[in-house]
Design goal:
The chain is α+β, with helices and mostly antiparallel strands and 310 residues long. It has helices at 28-44, 82-98, 102-107, 112-124, 139-145, 176-192, 246-260, and strands at 60-64, 70-75, 226-231, 234-242, 279-280, 286-287.
Length: 310
């Protein structure tokens, strides 16, 4: 667990803070079950980025509500430190783009560049009502859409709608991910130079959903390893995992939530609404992915297609 410097948990497990918008928010018991089941998958998983071979994976796992509030976060003792921030980003990002509020929140950003990505997504799909909660986006799906070539790696193809064209792309200008934070960075640099107030303690100017809180508080993530959480077909939050190979992160989030659904009243997105049902982009159109689980990933069994049919 993370502490606040005084020996107290920084992110104690809690229920959802979004009861004004969600009829039955996540409960503390449900958050506990999701974290426990994801952690169980993690300790069985063969690490992808660790030596010696066949070391166990070490990850950070976060659950957030639809407002982006962190409801719980756990990490393995040797998990990469960067994964703490990234796991929260993944949970928030998967929830954000799966929500009915995605288009309206992006449309409320002061940057015309940020606002323009809504239409780019709608043109790319094409669907004039995209980003209004009809589709469940896994982090794998968002990564597909945030590449300077779609599909990723095929030269000469157009960019995904969350990316810049390859001729404009750079590590410092990736698309929506960088556009969301550039204003805050600029304001902070001005403050350091003595010009005006500092940016608020957050990374985006998206509209607040509660006092001092917006849904992508620490920025957008585009790496796989997170999925939205539902109850009876209604979005109630998201889980994000970071710290090992992205396929391993994907699997721990997906299977952890699936296994938790056998204990408490939460579920994966219905298969019919997952992003892998969409075939998008200029001809020849391509199918999005939802998650991508590794082959034979466990140390304690020889199971192979472990996510199939779930």
């Amino acid at each position: 667990m993370l502490t606040n410097g005084a020996g107290q948990g920084r992110y104690p497990i809690r229920g959802g803070a979004d009861g004004a918008e969600v009829t039955n928010p996540l409960t503390a018991a449900e958050v506990t079950a999701i974290l426990e089941e994801a952690f169980k998958i993690m300790v069985r998983t063969r690490g992808q980025i660790r030596q010696p071979p066949d070391s166990r994976a070490q990850m950070s796992i976060a659950v957030t509500d639809t407002r982006g509030v962190v409801l719980g976060l756990v990490r393995a003792p040797d998990a990469a430190l960067f994964g703490t921030d990234v796991a929260v980003q993944k949970a928030r990002s998967a929830t954000f783009f799966s929500g009915a509020f995605a288009a309206s929140d992006l449309g409320g950003d002061p940057s015309a560049d940020v606002r323009g990505f809504v239409q780019k997504v709608r043109d790319f799909f094409p669907d004039a009502t995209a980003l209004t909660g009809k589709t469940a986006f896994g982090m794998r799906s968002l990564g597909n859409l945030a590449r300077p070539n779609f599909p990723d790696g095929q030269a000469g193809r157009p960019n995904g709608p969350l990316s810049r064209p390859i001729s404009q792309w750079s590590p410092f200008s990736t698309g929506l991910q960088s556009a969301l934070v550039i204003g805050n960075i600029g304001q902070h640099l001005g403050f350091v130079g003595g010009a005006g107030a500092d940016t608020a303690p957050r990374c985006t100017f998206l509209p607040d959903v509660a006092a001092g809180q917006n849904r992508l508080q620490n920025g957008l993530q585009i790496f796989p390893g997170g999925v939205p959480i539902y109850r009876s077909g209604k979005l109630i939050g998201g889980i994000g995992v970071s710290g090992d190979g992205i396929d391993q992160d994907d699997m721990v989030a997906f299977l952890g939530l699936f296994n938790a659904s056998t204990r408490v009243g939460v579920s994966e997105a219905d298969a019919a609404m997952r992003a892998d049902q969409l075939v998008v982009g200029p001809p020849p159109a391509q199918r999005l992915l939802y998650v991508n689980c590794p082959f034979a990933p466990f140390l304690d069994t020889s199971d192979q297609n472990v996510c199939q049919g779930k």
